[in-house]
C-alpha cells in the first residue's frame, strides 16, 4: 500500500468480496504485489465464496432471524461474528453504509481524506456557545466497520481507573481486571504477550517500529522536558510519552471489520446487508420484535426471534431509540412520536474528548511523507499534579491541523495537537423531527465547563514548550499559531481552535439509576428483546480514544447474549 492510493492486498481482497473486482483482475494485481500464485488463488477463492454466499442470502431474504444487529461498526462487527459462530443462529446485520472499498479506507494515514465523503454521516454540531459560536463538523464512519474504518487506527484501551469507575457505578463485570482479560483475548499484539497484552486473538495490533522523524523528535522533546516515557501505554502504565499502537498490519488498516466481520461473511447463517438503513424498531407491547429498514428503494420489515442489538454508534443509537418511541416522553410527544417507553436518559450526558487544532509549525526542510497513521507519538499527562490519571494528551501530527476559521496553513508543516481526555462538559443529542432520515440536533457543549478551558490552556502551553524544544530544531522554521498570547488571548484562541476529537459516548449510559438507559448486561431498561452495544453505553468516557473499549463492549455483549441463550 502506498500514499498514492494504490491498492494493498487487504483492499484488493475486500474489493473481490464486495463484487467490485473479478478473479482475473485480482490475480493480476496480486502478482504485481509479489504474492505467490498459490496464495493469490487461495485469497481469491475465499473472497469469492464470501461474495457468492452474501449474494445468495440477499436474493433469498428470510422473514425472521434469531438476532438482528443494527450497524456494522466497532461493536457491531464483533457481535455479527460472535453470534454467528453457532451455525444454529440466524444472524442479520443491517448497515446503512456501503462495503467501504475506497483505497483511502485502507491507508492508515489518509483517514482525514474520508471526511465529508459518502463514507461519512457528515454530522455537525449546533453553534457551540463556548467555542466562539462555531458549528463543528463531527465525522462518523458510514460503511462496514463504521468509525473503525475511518478512524486514526490508534489502539488504546484506557486507564484502569476508567473501568473500575464503571464498575463502581453499579456495573459488575466491567472492572479493570475483568475487561483486561477480554482485551487480552481480542489482541494479537506484535509486542508479544505479557500480563497485560494478548497474542493469538483476532485483532492485529502493531507497535510503531519505524517512526517518522517528527515522531522521534516529539519523544526526544518530552525527554528533554523531563517527562517520563512509557513503553506500553496499554500495559502497566499509561502516563508518559509513547509511540502509538496501531490497528495496522502489513501497512494497511486492520479494522475490526477485517478481523472479525469479513472472515465470517462466508457463513450461511450470517447475512450482511449494506445500504440498509434502519428507520424504526418495531415493538409488540414492551418487546422489540423486529425492525423496519430501507433497502434498494423499498421499505422492508424483518422479525427478530430472539433479540435486536442496537450498535449504531453514540449518535445514531439514541436517535434510533427516540424515533422508535423510546426516550424522554415529553420531547417525543412534542414531535408527534407515539411513546413506547419513557426513558429520560436517552441522548443525555453526551461526552466527547476535545481537540485544540492546533499548535502549528512551518518546516524549514521538506518533510518526508506521513508514516503510520500520520501521528505515531503522543503524551498522556496531567494538567494538575493531584489528578488520579492523565487528563490531557498532546499528539504529534505529521501535517498541519487547523480549524476552518483559523486556516488554511502552508502544506509543508506539522503540528502538536493538544487533547482533553477527561472532559467535565456534557452535551446532549435530540431529534430534529419525527423523520427518521433527518440528522439529529447535536450539542456537544464543548468547553461548557470552565475546568475544561483551564486544562486545555495548560495542554496548549505544554505542547508549545515541546514544540519549541531543541529536539525540533532541524524542522522548525517558525511557530505559525497560536504564538505567545497571554492568558486571556490564549483562552480566546482555544475557543476558536476547539474541535471534535471524534469520540462521542454515553448517550445510552449503562447503569442502575433512573437516568441509565441500559443495565449492566446492556438490556434496555423496561423493555425486552433489545440491547444496546456500542460507545453510547459507556457510563463515562474513557481517558483514551474509544475504539478499543467499544470493541470490548461488543465482545462483552456477545458473551452476555450467548450465556443467556445457553444458560
Ligand atoms: C475520524 C475519526 C477518528 C477516530 N480515531 C480514533 C482512533 O484513532 N482510535 C480510537 O480508539 N478511536 C478513534 N475514533 C473513535 C472510534 O473509532 C469510535 O469511538 C468507535 O469506532 C465507535 O464504535 P461504535 O460501534 O460505537 O460506532 P460506529 O463504529 O460508528 O458504528 C456504527 C455503525 O452503525 C451504522 N449505522 C448508523 N445508523 C444506522 C442505521 N440507522 N441503520 C443501519 N446502520 C446504521 C453506521 O453506518 C456505522 O457503520 C475515531 C473516530 C473518528 C470518526
UniProtKB/TrEMBL annotation:
Keywords: FAD, Flavoprotein. The keyword Zinc does not apply. It holds the Pfam family GMC_oxred_N. Residues 313-327 form the Glucose-methanol-choline oxidoreductase N-terminal domain. Its cofactor is FAD. SUPFAM superfamilies: FAD-linked reductases, C-terminal domain (SSF54373), FAD/NAD(P)-binding domain (SSF51905). FAD binds at residues 151-154, 278. InterPro entries: FAD/NAD-bd_sf, GMC_OxRdtase, GMC_OxRdtase_N, GMC_OxRtase_C. PANTHER family: CHOLINE DEHYDROGENASE, MITOCHONDRIAL, GLUCOSE-METHANOL-CHOLINE GMC OXIDOREDUCTASE. Belongs to the GMC oxidoreductase family. This is Glucose-methanol-choline oxidoreductase.
Amino acid at each position: 500500500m502506498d500514499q498514492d492510493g494504490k491498492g494493498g492486498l487487504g483492499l484488493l481482497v475486500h474489493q473481490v468480496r464486495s463484487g467490485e473486482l473479478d478473479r482475473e483482475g485480482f490475480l493480476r494485481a496480486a502478482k504485481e504485489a509479489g504474492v505467490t500464485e498459490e496464495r493469490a488463488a487461495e485469497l481469491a477463492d475465499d473472497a469469492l465464496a464470501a461474495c457468492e454466499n452474501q449474494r445468495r442470502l440477499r436474493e433469498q431474504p428470510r422473514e425472521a432471524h434469531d438476532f438482528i444487529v443494527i450497524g456494522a461498526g466497532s461493536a457491531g462487527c464483533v457481535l455479527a461474528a460472535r453470534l454467528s459462530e453457532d451455525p444454529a443462529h440466524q444472524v442479520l446485520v443491517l448497515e446503512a453504509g456501503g462495503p467501504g472499498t475506497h483505497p483511502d479506507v485502507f491507508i492508515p494515514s489518509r483517514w482525514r481524506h474520508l471526511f465529508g465523503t459518502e463514507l461519512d454521516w457528515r454530522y455537525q454540531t449546533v453553534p457551540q456557545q463556548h467555542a466562539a459560536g462555531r458549528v463543528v463538523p463531527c465525522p462518523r464512519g458510514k460503511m462496514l466497520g463504521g468509525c473503525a474504518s475511518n478512524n486514526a487506527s490508534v489502539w488504546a484501551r484506557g486507564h484502569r481507573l476508567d473501568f473500575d469507575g464503571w464498575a463502581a457505578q453499579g456495573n459488575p463485570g466491567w472492572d479493570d481486571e475483568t475487561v483486561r482479560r477480554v482485551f487480552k483475548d481480542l489482541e494479537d499484539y506484535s509486542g508479544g504477550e505479557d500480563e497485560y497484552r494478548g497474542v493469538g486473538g483476532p485483532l492485529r495490533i502493531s507497535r510503531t517500529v519505524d517512526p517518522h522523524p517528527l515522531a522521534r523528535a516529539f519523544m526526544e522533546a518530552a525527554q528533554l522536558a523531563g517527562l517520563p516515557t512509557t513503553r506500553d501505554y496499554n500495559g502497566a502504565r499509561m502516563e508518559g510519552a509513547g509511540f502509538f499502537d496501531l490497528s495496522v498490519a502489513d501497512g494497511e488498516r486492520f479494522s475490526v471489520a477485517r478481523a472479525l466481520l469479513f472472515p465470517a461473511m462466508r457463513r450461511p447463517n450470517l447475512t450482511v446487508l449494506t445500504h440498509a438503513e434502519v428507520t424504526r424498531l418495531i415493538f409488540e407491547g414492551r418487546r422489540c420484535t423486529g425492525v423496519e429498514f430501507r433497502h434498494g428503494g423499498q421499505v422492508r420489515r424483518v422479525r427478530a426471534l430472539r433479540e435486536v442489538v442496537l450498535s449504531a454508534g453514540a449518535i445514531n443509537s439514541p436517535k434510533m431509540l427516540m424515533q422508535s418511541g423510546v426516550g424522554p416522553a415529553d420531547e417525543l410527544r412534542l414531535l408527534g412520536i407515539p411513546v413506547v417507553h419513557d426513558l429520560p436518559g436517552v441522548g443525555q450526558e453526551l461526552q466527547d474528548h476535545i481537540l485544540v487544532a492546533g499548535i502549528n509549525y512551518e518546516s524549514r526542510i521538506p518533510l518526508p511523507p506521513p508514516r503510520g497513521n500520520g501521528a505515531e507519538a503522543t503524551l498522556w499527562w496531567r494538567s494538575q499534579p493531584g489528578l488520579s490519571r492523565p487528563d490531557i494528551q498532546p499528539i504529534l501530527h505529521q501535517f498541519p491541523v487547523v480549524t476552518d476559521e483559523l486556516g488554511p496553513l502552508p502544506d509543508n508543516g506539522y503540528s502538536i495537537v493538544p487533547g482533553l481526555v477527561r472532559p467535565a462538559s456534557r452535551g446532549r443529542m435530540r431529534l430534529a423531527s419525527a423523520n427518521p432520515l433527518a440528522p439529529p440536533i447535536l450539542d456537544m457543549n464543548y468547553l461548557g465547563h470552565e475546568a475544561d478551558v483551564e486544562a486545555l490552556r495548560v495542554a496548549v502551553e505544554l505542547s508549545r514548550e515541546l514544540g519549541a524544544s531543541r529536539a525540533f530544531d532541524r524542522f522548525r522554521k517558525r511557530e505559525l499559531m497560536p504564538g505567545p498570547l497571554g492568558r486571556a488571548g490564549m483562552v480566546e484562541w482555544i475557543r476558536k481552535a476547539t474541535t471534535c476529537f471524534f469520540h462521542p459516548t454515553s448517550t445510552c449510559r449503562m447503569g442502575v439509576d433512573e437516568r441509565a438507559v441500559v443495565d449492566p448486561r446492556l438490556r434496555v431498561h423496561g423493555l425486552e428483546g433489545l440491547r444496546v452495544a456500542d460507545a453510547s453505553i459507556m457510563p463515562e468516557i474513557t481517558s483514551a480514544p474509544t475504539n478499543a473499549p467499544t470493541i470490548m463492549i461488543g465482545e462483552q455483549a456477545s458473551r452476555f447474549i450467548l450465556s443467556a441463550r445457553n444458560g
